[in-house]
Write a structure and sequence with these properties.
Elements lengths: L1 H13 L15 E4 L2 E7 L6 H7 L4 H7 L12 E5 L14 E4 L6 H8 L3 H7 L12 E4 L14 E5 L6 H8 L3 H7 L12 E5 L2 H6 L2 H7 L3 H9 L18 E8 L3 H13 L11 H20 L3 E8 L6 H8 L9 E3 L4 H13 L3 E4 L5 H4 L5 E3 L4 H6 L2 H5 L5 E6 L7 H15 L6 E5 L4 H8 L5 E6 L5 H18 L2 E6 L11 H6 L3 E4 L8 H14 L5 H20 L12 E2 L4 E2 L1 E3 L6 E3 L3 E5 L5 E3 L2
Parallel strand pairs: 8-9, 8-10, 10-11, 11-12, 12-21, 13-14, 13-15, 15-16, 16-17
Antiparallel strand pairs: 1-2, 2-3, 4-5, 6-7, 17-22, 18-19, 20-21, 22-23
């Protein structure tokens, strides 16, 4: 046994010998699956997935991604689909790809996110995807270049480095060679230490040769792995059995750019000469309003009998690294059960690292930094990315099966990168809805003539526009559609952007006449009793009217304190994906990757009513 162990270590140290494929008989049977040529290989006794990959000149990763139904475990008799190797027009080879069949309501963004690649990488090998994708079509995914396999469906092992472990000892334990180890853990070349989580592809030899107790211990689900690490903390409590005790104080840290010192100076100057000096630093009124909303949520739970301690930290101006580092060095912050903030994007990165290192749940209220979510299971992003918001709009389009749907836009080449991404996402999500045919209208190539030719006088014409800031283009389209509606009786529903309400040369009456709708992360319904009560109490407390910052401060604080009160500090291990409603926001957090954090899937579609008020589209 010792000799065998030594041989493995030497092989890893001096370069593992090639996997021999002499036991694998390569089949000549193949089938065309959705136009993609695949070998059909039946796994025989004694064969390993590594040997099969070698025989077919491909990789274990590609076989896993094209046979996801086996979850990375390939039993004897399994019929494997293996892409036929062939040089393609781009110079890549077939073993670099997985083939994905597009499902209903899937978007290019979602598929790219699933496989850990960029949208442009998929478009490179599937040029038609640039104008949209359809359910049932097959996409070639360049998985060979994926560096971070943070996906459940590949069945990777997530191993926490223990005391005295080395790269070689871990490779030996899991039968992984050094090349694969560093492929998926490039940072370990220069920074490898106890407590790191490394990612390793599971192999058949691992299951066959490893003692059962080791397999059971190390093949845990990614969520369990994170939880096991958290359970080592002295304050850990299982969220399923948690019961709040009045002896427990829930500590919430609120990090806001209050700019107290600067505002104090400005107030003094204002008193001496109110005609020349601004009363407050930039955004101070909104920031204090958020703080006031949070205080009202704290007060509500105190009245319910919960002990709450709110620690407020002034982050001052955006990008003040010294101030943020000082806050993160405060030992009291480590005692927090929850961190809310910072508000500015520039400050989120440092605090997110602190939250991860100290295993404290943190919510980023407004900053959108999806890259931070990928490997931080303690981070919550409250504001969804644009692509996620569009995906959540699928239900809006699903109810339009008997309409004429037009996507109207400028020429793709004239669009900014962000506008082009928005347009692609809309194409994807609309085309993914069954029973809907989409007319893609390039307004620069035909103007009003091509737009009118696409309209249908006998149906409701739903016009979707992705432009957000091209006022000339927006007003030109709206004025033209308004004339058609009034003079030729076309039925029109217009879906655009909330920013249009601020365009000076667009009459709100025109928008109302076309049932103007837009996506929004929030909806203030002043006819709702709970909203009315909040407004009334806010007036009484602060002698002012609450705007959206006041509502967001309340909703965010109220939701997360509720989670802490019901499930304890480690509530995210019991987080459900059921939508909850606050006063003006929705809460529906989804984990974005196995080792990552949570993104909120909140989205409203709002529409002008006949009374010139906004109503939620059901």
């Amino acid at each position: 046994m010792e000799k065998r162990f030594l041989a493995i270590i030497l092989a890893l140290a001096f370069g593992a010998a090639p996997i021999q494929a002499q036991n694998v008989v390569k089949t000549e049977n193949f089938v065309a699956i959705n136009g993609v040529k695949m070998y059909l290989h039946k796994m025989r006794p004694g064969e390993t997935i590594e040997a099969i990959a070698k025989a077919y000149n491909t990789t274990v990763q590609v076989i896993s991604m094209n046979n996801q139904q086996f979850g990375g475990k390939f039993p004897t008799g399994a019929m494997l689909r293996i892409p036929v190797v062939a040089q393609d027009a781009t110079g890549g080879s077939a073993q670099e790809f997985a083939y994905h069949t597009v499902e209903k309501k899937q978007s290019l963004y979602g598929i790219a996110h699933k496989y850990g690649v960029k949208e442009d990488d998929i478009i490179k090998y599937n040029p038609k995807a640039a104008t949209g994708i359809n359910a049932g079509e097959v996409l070639k995914i360049p998985v060979g270049n994926v560096q971070n396999p943070d996906r459940q469906n590949l069945n990777f092992i997530y191993h926490t480095v223990k005391t005295n472990e080395t790269v070689n000892s871990i490779c030996t334990l899991y039968k992984v060679d050094l090349f694969d180890f560093y492929k998926y853990n490039p940072k370990s070349r220069t920074n490898f230490k106890e407590g790191d989580v490394v990612v390793l592809p599971k192999s058949e030899s691992f299951y066959e040769e490893q003692p059962a107790e080791v397999v059971e211990q190390e093949s845990i689900d990614y969520h369990d792995m994170i939880r096991i690490e958290a359970s080592k903390n002295p304050d850990y409590s299982a969220c399923e059995t948690y019961h709040y005790s009045k002896s427990k104080t829930i500590r919430v840290a609120l990090l806001l750019p209050l700019n107290l010192a600067k505002n104090e100076t400005m107030i003094s100057s204002y008193v001496s000469d109110p005609n020349k000096n601004s009363l407050a630093a930039k955004n101070t009124v909104s920031i204090f309003e958020f703080y006031e909303g949070a205080l009202m949520a704290i007060r509500d739970y105190q009245l319910k009998g919960y002990n709450l301690q709110l620690d407020v930290y002034d982050t001052e101006r955006s990008g003040n690294d010294a101030k943020i580092n000082a806050i993160c060095s405060d030992p009291e912050l480590k005692k927090s059960d929850l961190i809310i903030g910072p508000l500015y994007t520039e400050n989120v990165t440092r605090v997110a690292k602190f939250a991860k290192d100290n295993q404290i749940a943190m919510v980023s209220p407004f900053a959108i930094k999806n890259e931070l979510l990928k490997d931080n299971p303690y981070l919550f992003q409250f504001t969804p990315s644009a692509a996620t918001s569009i995906e959540e709009t699928a239900e809006f389009f699903a109810g339009m099966s008997d309409c004429n749907l037009l996507l109207v836009h400028r020429n793709d080449n004239s669009l900014k990168p962000a506008e082009l991404t928005l347009l692609r996402n809309y194409r994807d999500i609309i085309k993914s809805v069954n029973n809907i045919s989409l007319k893609d209208i390039d307004y620069d190539n035909g103007g009003n003539a091509i737009l009118k030719s696409a309209l249908n006088a006998a149906e409701t014409n739903v016009i979707v526009m992705t432009s957000t800031d091209d006022e000339v283009f927006i007003s030109k389209i709206i004025n033209y559609l308004t004339n058609l509606q009034k003079n030729e009786n076309y039925k029109i529903v217009l879906l655009g952007s909330q920013s249009w309400e601020k365009v000076n040369n667009i009459d709100v009456e025109f928008l109302q006449g076309m049932n103007f709708s837009y996506r929004s992360a929030n909806f203030i319904d002043y006819e709702n009793d709970k909203v009315r009560n909040f407004v009334s109490e806010f007036r009484d407390r602060y002698k002012s009217e609450p705007a959206i910052y006041g509502f967001s401060g309340y909703d965010i604080t109220n939701y997360f304190i509720g989670q802490l009160a019901q499930k304890g500090k480690y509530f995210h291990f019991c987080l459900t994906e059921n939508e909850e409603r606050g006063l003006v926001y929705k809460f529906d957090f989804h984990k974005i990757s196995p080792l990552g954090g949570y993104e909120n899937h909140t989205n409203f579609v709002l529409q002008y009513s006949e009374r010139f008020t906004l109503e939620e589209v059901k």
